Amino acid sequence: VKSGRDVDKFSAMHLTAVPAAKVGTVLVEESPVNLECKVTQVIPLGSHDLFLAECVAVDVDERLLDESGRLCLNKAKLIVYSQGLLALQRAAAFRKAAGRVCPAPER
Prior knowledge:
- By secondary structure, this protein is mainly beta.
- Helix content is 7%, strand content 36%.
- It is globular.
- The relative contact order is 0.14.
């Protein structure tokens, strides 16, 4: 794990920074979904802080939407990088929000 204080992660990963619409930061152009959030509370937990935030904008690649405008994350072919591990990510957790995302593909 490398800190953004020490490494330019955009440059290291060949990503493109683009301006956010609602908050004073940048989005990752190559990301299919970007959430723009404003921090509402910081809770110190000893070893780290927990940030609570309000989502003020969602930027979605329109190719991930179905004809009714619902988000179909199963079209995104997502991967997750977590503490040095790379794993395929299924959209199951997102499908729990009934009616807000596309159902799981049939097997």
